[in-house]
Amino acid sequence: MTLPFFKYHGTGNDFILIDNRIQNLNPSEKQVVMLCDRHFGIGADGMMLLTTYPGYDFGMRYFNSDGHESTMCGNGGRCMTLFAKTLGLVADKARFMAIDGEHLAEILHPDHTSALIRLRMKDADSGTEYQDGHFIDTGSPHFVVFTQDVRSADVFRFGRALRHDLRFAPGGANVDFVEPAGDHLVVRTYERGVEDETLSCGTGVTASALAMAIRDPGNPGFYLIKTCGGDLKVSFRRDGQWFREVWLEGEARFVFSGNIDLPDE
Which residues are catalytic? Predict the structure, then answer.
């Protein structure tokens, strides 16, 4: 079959988006892997399907580039919101359903290819503190490791080892390396399912900000985040052991669109 697709990215974290209201596609692992392959396919960190969902503007399904349907993707949710606006499904606000529940989004300063998107993430509890890091679930599971020099960190080697740590079995965890740097945090992330470092991870910077807030009780309720792919902002309200009104803010951008022949399974 010939598959129309759209390519978007959020601070360098790139995705293939499909309007599945039309296609009614239920992709196999092999098909997702092919589409996300950077040599033989379109190339992306993951693929998303925009679906209908009763009572909501749309639904979102996310697949990692390894072909498996996965948990919430924060940068992906921001890209999906801009895609929905492009399709005429929403104006300046959106309400959609993902695997971890309901999300709200606000679309700010849109032009013909990009917009600043504020995405409300799920409430998160304080997680679990370990000697070597902090585990916290922000829609996807993350292990946050603080370091004094994140730029020289061997993210692939240590991220891969921690991603498979038995503490996080059976699904494993994404691993975020975080350096506090003045008025902001610098974050690099090893993503499970991609099995490599990505330029940015939305749930990862969210987890990093919340883990930092636990270490820094005098924080102002937000952190500016620098990733390899660009700048993000995470804001939140602390409520005892919980973080509520958690918002991820950053640019989402359309890259290109086209058609590709999708092989049979």
Answer: 73, 201
- In 3D space, the residue among 14, 15, 16 whose CA is nearest the CA of residue 3 turns out to be 16
With 80 as the cut, is the pLDDT of residue 228 above it?
A: yes
Give pLDDT tens digits for 15-46.
Answer: 999 999 988 899 999 999 999 999 999 999 99
Q: What is the mean pLDDT of residues 229-242?
A: 97
Sign of CA dihedral 194, 69, 170, 127: positive
**Axis-axis angle for helices 202-215, 74-86 (nearest 10):** 130
| Whether the Cβ atoms of residue 60 and residue 84 lie closer than 8 Å to each other | no
pLDDT in tens, 149-204: 999 999 999 999 999 999 999 999 999 999 999 889 999 999 999 999 999 999 99
Residue 123: closest CA among 97, 103, 152:
103
pTM here is 0.97
Work out the burial of residue 63: count CB atoms within 10 Å of its CB; fewer than 13 is exposed, 13-18 middle, 19 or more buried: buried
Q: Please, how many CA atoms are within 13 Å of residue 109, restricted to the half-sphere of its CB?
A: 9
3.40.50.2000, 3.10.310.10, 3.40.50.300, 3.40.190.10: CATH of 124-250: 3.10.310.10
Tell me the pLDDT tens digit for each residue of 62-100.
999 999 999 999 999 999 999 999 999 999 999 999 999
Residue whose structure tokens are 């209908």: 52
CB distance 175 to 193 below 8 Å: no
Exposure string (b/e) for 206-220, b if CB count within 10 Å is 16 or more?
Answer: bbbbbbbbbeeeeee
Topology adopted by domain 2-121+252-261:
Diaminopimelate Epimerase; Chain A, domain 1 (3.10.310)
Backbone angles phi, psi at 215, to 5 degrees: -75, -25
